[in-house]
Amino acid sequence: MDRPNYITPSGYTALKDEYDDLLTGERPRLVEVVSWAAGNGDRSENGDYIYGRKRLREIDRRLGFLARRMKAAKVVDPARQEDRTRVWFGATVRIVDEDERERIVTMVGDDETDAAAGRIGWNAPIARALRGAAVGDVRRVTLPAGEREYEVIAISYPD
């Protein structure tokens, strides 16, 4: 990876929980089903065996992905941010565009994004444009729909 995988403590916990659930929960249960299905004879028409093996490959790929992401993770606690006057990782920012539409976004790790909840990845175009901005700053963002300007109205961090 060419850049750090910043993540909040709760985001890291979510990755670890998913990893542990797959490794110690779903995968062992599926191995049992596949083993049972393999003992039933003809595997070429055995749905439990065929789809069980397919799901095992999916789980193993996901486990590898999660392991790589956790290894590259740099956990950053936004509550410990010293410079709370500027937009940095973990900041919750209230912005307004040229049409006076207001949005509230929180800068989180790329693995914990949720656009519907206003949680945008640290490497998203809006997040990159807002990095280091202070209240009152206007930043231009190039989005798929075109360029937009956003003014920072408020910045907050968790306590």
What's the quick description here?
By secondary structure, the protein is α/β, with parallel strands linked by helices. It has three helices and seven strands.
Explain what you see.
This protein has 159 residues and is of the alpha/beta class. It has two domains: 71 residues, Transcription elongation factor, GreA/GreB, N-terminal domain (Helix Hairpins), CATH 1.10.287; 79 residues, Chitinase A, domain 3. Helices cover 39% and strands 25% of the residues. The protein has three helices and seven strands. The protein has a five-stranded mixed sheet. It has a two-stranded parallel sheet with strand order 1-2. Helix 1 runs antiparallel to helix 2. The mean pLDDT is 91.
Provide tags for this entry:
Chitinase A, domain 3; Helix Hairpins; 3 helices; alpha/beta; 39% helix; five-stranded mixed sheet
How do the strands and helices of this protein lay out in sequence?
Elements lengths: L4 E3 L1 H30 L8 H26 E3 L16 E6 L4 E7 L10 E3 L3 H6 L7 E6 L2 E11 L3
Parallel strand pairs: 1-2, 4-5
Antiparallel strand pairs: 3-4, 3-7, 6-7
Pfam family, one: GreA_GreB_N
Organism: Sphingomonas japonica
Family: Belongs to the GreA/GreB family. GreB subfamily.
